[in-house]
Amino acid sequence: MIPAETTGGKRVTLCLGCRAPLYLRVLESAGGYYIGYRCARCGPQGRESDYYNTRLEAQDAMDKRDFGRETQFNGRHYKHLGNSWE
Fold it and tell me: With contact defined as beta carbons under 8 Å apart, do 15 and 22 qualify?
């Protein structure tokens, strides 16, 4: 796993700031809708997916566990799928 990029799509994780439990959910930012974690106290904690155009598309992907995130690290291309990187 690439540090600070993703938690591996766990349904529950802990906030890095206050250690409160965080649950995977559909969130919105300027980039669009995404699947990730947000702490009520500390704010956004992680984006587990690429961006979607609509909340419904993101919710459907989360319900089906059919989401991932593409990234580059040290010049290499990775795609996160479920709990592994390719």
Answer: yes
SS (H, E, C) 14-76: ECCCCCCEEECEEEEECCEEEEEEEECCCEEEEECCCCECCHHHHHHHHHHCCCEEEEEECCE
Q: What is the pLDDT of residue 65?
A: 87
Q: Among residues of the chain, what percentage have pLDDT more than 90?
A: 49
Sequence spans of domains, the chain: 12-85
**Rounded distance, CA 68 to CA 47, Å?**
10
pTM (two decimals): 0.71
